[in-house]
Here is the input.
Amino acid sequence: MRLYDYPDCPFAQKVRIVLAEKELEYETVFVDLRQGEQRTAEFLKLNPYGRVPVLIDEEVVVYDSTLISEYIEDEYPHPALMPEDSAGRAQVRILEDFCDNSFLPSAGFVQAELAKPEAEQDVDRLQRYRKGLTDGLVRLEGFLTGREFLAGEFSLADIAFVPAVLNLSRLGVEVDPRLRNVAGWIGRLRQRASIQSLGF
Here is the structure.
């Protein structure tokens, strides 16, 4: 098994947590996004969209972190990272979709803005995307009512949020103390060996 990876990519981090949860061995192939290696003809044969991660398992090539995670879950079902019932699985997918298309992009925009010299940072843009993150946390608070994890048991939904929620302080976002469910959930995420193995 080979994972085409870039260490700072949150979508690649997500797949690495899934692999760690399953205790699967794999070879890492570093793709230097700064040097444009994701746009080489060789890489585009693996993923025509030119993005990491890409997983190769024997002859099977899978790209997109969500598709990779579900492939791993199907092929290596223990320990389970998806609920057994279709309603629960749909809930996990809805949460992953929210994370991938709203929460993670907001975190990425904040990170990109903070990487600029302070004089060049767009304060309004920072405020807007930080608000997107805090609004997202309020939404998650509701999902976590009466639950330890987003879908009840630890799942792919929780994993999707790890790269952003465990970096909130670096993004200048504090968890509102009234969001007790979220605060407890983040604490539980930090305790998992698979997540600690990535240095979060």
